[in-house]
Amino acid sequence: xxxxxxxxxxxxxxxxxxxxxxxxxxxxxxxxxxxxxxxxxxxxxxxxxxxxxxxxxxxxxxxxxxxxxxxxxxxxxxxxxxxxxxxxxxxxxxxxxxxxxxxxxxxxxxxxxxxxxxxxxxxxxxxxxxxxxxxxxxxxxxxxxxxxxxxxxxxxxxxxxxxxxxxxxxxxxxxxxxxxxxxxxxxxxxxxxxxxxxxxxxxxxxxxxxxxxxxxxxxxxxxxxxxxxxxxxxxxxxxxxxxxxxxxxxxxxxxxxxxxxxxxxxxxxxxxxxxxxxxxxxxxxxxxxxxxxxxxxxxxxxxxxxxxxxxxxxxxxxxxxxxxxxxxxxxxxxxxxxxxxxxxxxxxxxxxxxx
Length: 355
Ligand code: FNR
Prior knowledge:
InterPro entries: Aldolase_TIM (IPR013785), Alpha-hydoxy_acid_DH_FMN (IPR012133), FMN-dep_DH (IPR000262), FMN_HAD (IPR037396), FMN_hydac_DH_AS (IPR008259). It holds the Pfam family FMN_dh. This protein is an alpha/beta fold. It has helices at residues 8-11, 16-23, 30-41, 86-96, 110-114, 129-141, 160-165, 195-202, 209-218, 231-239, 261-272, 287-296, 305-313, 316-333, 339-343, and strands spanning 42-45, 59-61, 64-66, 70-72, 100-102, 119-123, 147-150, 223-228, 244-247, 278-280, 300-303, 346-349. Helix content is 39%, strand content 13%. Ligand FNR binds next to helix 2, strand 11 and helix 13.
């Protein structure tokens, strides 16, 4: 049993190449490091004597009831970490009462995953519009409660750890949603080629606002746009019909030089107004980070890497229970009875180094 949500990275036993695939960022990993430094730099001033007792963490995220203001970030190829892959992590999310986001690049078919827990579907924009349409239809048919389109991957960021490790997927880990059903042939996203090389052939680097508006026109399920950092893009996403944006730099895996998500959050919330749902990810490593993100202005967060480490240990359910406990402890310590009280806390970006 881990003592803290962030302990699973140490506990996970994985091949070095897989570890680096998860832990790494793009380029010199400046944005990856900045995500943590910026979250560490946020201070939240606690309130006292509110008679809190037992804090209430429940919320609704885009029409989906959730016990915590948290969803599992979409992450590719989860059978790299556990033979049951996505099924185990999705089931843990379901038991914890939070949404699980199925990646376009899941290593099991989206229908199988959506059958074990309430899920959303993350869409990568592929060159083949027919394939995009087929994925939307499948996700809708499978009962996915929202569509999260990722907009910060016109190409995959250059992840130097993977390049130096010549990282490839093992033959039994495939992009299961992209297998051509008529021929049973694997798409270019499968096989032994390097992850970056094969995504380069399938992803559309010219994805545009016009495409996003088309996407909005063909589906009525709630639409989240993931990978927003500039308030002008946040406004454009709303114009194109988005129901929510995810302030994210993809965990430091895309443009190396982007601001930390937590630093970009305030201006996006200012642009969209307090009533528009805004999510955040990149660098969340425990309950205090969740509280900080909500205090700065997010309505909920996505959690990424720590849940892959927990999956590798076979304990994603325990990890989510720990994260919930950490959030409730943080709320008690900050004097918050519910998430509205968290949103009302005073925050500052405190430049004092802490180590
Ligand atoms: C990701 N991420 C991601 N995002 C996405 O939209 N589709 C995907 O398939 C993936 N795949 C993926 C794989 C791995 C191994 C990682 C680590 C990340 C990005 C993910 O959704 C999220 O934005 C970041 O992981 C958040 O940062 P933290 O919490 O990992 O720091």
